[in-house]
């Protein structure tokens, strides 16, 4: 009995030390408050005293931490966060097996979510609340992952040099009229891989390869930088049109940096393929880990994140599209109007990813 008491006191001391260390690291900007780094497992907690849920996430947005904190305030369930690259987190969870501390896997791409499912690390989410909050189109067919927000990959253009009526489809960007005028980032960017994977699904490999060749021929410079860098390059006169995710435009327009706001105001947003296959839409989501030790808490967190309040907040803070139809979109998104989206299974983004990479390499999209 004395040994048990001694062990209990030692374990409690370790928990307190780890939690305090996490908070201190959060102040230094290395990890979020109360979270663990990607190299360390979440703090071991006596669940009989403190309810927890451990989230392994590839998302790095401030609004996520805000929502996790609000969830804790409402439920008393502490959210421990491990951050890392999606593929590395999947491999880590596979390697840890039944001993994993992960309860939820969160990432930004439907193809990656499907990869997690195919890796065998997820289980089905059984919740009438989730099914009411999230339409089937934003959920895995077996509910092994649940969409929590969406973003459109659109064409942005210089308001000074391009008229919206000159724009039409993704396919048209490969035509000669845009030669030397197109800006886009690297083929290593997941957003570009998933866009191309969707075009392969809709148009077939041969037509898609011709499109990729045309895009490379029309680039005004070698691919570099992130989405916001493409917008800045338009304003700098390095190109007239670019491919970007919509939420980056929102972040530019609402930046604390006046120069970024200027960039945001200088570009227009165009939703391509409205008369054909629709604009490419991708999804962020969460998968319930098969070996979760805190399954009930994890499902509660998914229910909260997919609810009207949280969905409205993620849209207003990060300019993503809510998947819950009862939530309010950010005012900026409303000004852009409704649009027709591609109607394909998000799993296809992952299934077609290897072929997309093969063709990118073949045509020289670096």
TrEMBL record:
Keywords: Ion transport, Iron, Iron transport, Signal, Transport. Residues 1-26 form the signal peptide. Pfam families: SBP_bac_6. Belongs to the bacterial solute-binding protein 1 family. This is Fe(3+) ABC transporter substrate-binding protein.
